[in-house]
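User: Acetylglutamate kinase. Structure?
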Amino acid sequence: MPLSPLEKTEILIEALPYIRQFYGKTVVIKYGGHAMTNCDLKRAVMQDVVLMHLVGMRPVIVHGGGPEITGMLKRLGKQSEFVQGQRVTDAETMEIVEMVLVGKINKEIVTNIHRYGGKAIGLCGKDGGLIEAQKQMARVLQEDGSEVDLDLGFVGRVERINPGIIETVIAEGYIPVVAPIGVGPDGESYNINADLVAGELAVALQADKLVLLTDVAGILADRNDPDSLISALEVGRVPELIRRGVIEGGMIPKVNCCIRALEGGVKKTHIIDGRIPHSILLEIFTDTGVGTMVVP
Ligand SMILES: Nc1ncnc2c1ncn2[C@@H]1O[C@H](COP(=O)(O)OP(=O)(O)O)[C@@H](O)[C@H]1O
Ligand SMILES: CC(=O)N[C@@H](CCC(=O)OP(=O)(O)O)C(=O)O
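Assistant: Predicted structure:
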């Protein structure tokens, strides 16, 4: 049943304290997963971000695009290989990663924000020297218990964020949209996991909130039970949950990135369900939690 005009005004008034609370505040959003491929969800995310901006918040988007990169590599006859969730990135793969993330996905997001009435500027880590990167090896445990460092090619880690360009873009009234490509000391490109970039950027901007969208309800105590959502997870419990295998795979970098952000001064961090339409608005403007809040 459609809402009556009175009900509509009530909803707006309910959001008022949250709008006041977050006015002028910086929120870094890691956009990826299902919400990036499903048309309705895509629209909902763009609308959420535009609304946040129009009511005076400072949203900053960091996007992923792993499945699209894998799809493009496949079309070009290249297999994708991952070590600890990181894509092994040879020189040719790096070129394709950069083309897909910066040339395609980043510009699509900017276009979609404009379509829903916002103003955005797309950047990668090379623009304004935003993300300085270093090569990142992967330390893996061998069967005999010893550790070995594997070379993943052009996989990088964030060495330093120079947030000046983001501040400029925000001050000019635009929503920054960041592709997770870093630049090395000799100008070479590095492929960096988008969750890690979002966490480091949130720290550099001293964001009030870091929101990571994903394809599950949040962190589950039992991955086979969707009702076992942990709504608030204290940082101190994380090592034990990882050791017991409760948190594993792609959730490990997410939770570590929240911890890093909290330690670096970000006030709140959330891993939320990107499959729920308008999950970002639900998280920010209502009391309804839509995922896991990682808390100090
Ligand atoms: N305790 C947990 N609760 C929920 N998901 C978990 C948990 N441990 C591991 N996972 C896995 O982590 C995945 C999310 O990481 P990932 O696939 O990298 O996300 P995204 O593509 O959204 O960046 C989930 O789909 C799930 O398979
Ligand atoms: C090093 C590394 O693995 N980089 C990622 C970058 C994109 C990303 O992080 O995308 P999602 O957030 O959609 O996974 C990759 O090549 O897939």
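The pocket of adenosine-5'-diphosphate (ligand 1) is lined by residues 32-33, 64, 214-216, 219-220, 223, 246-251 (CB under 6 Å). The two ends are 42 Å apart (CA to CA).
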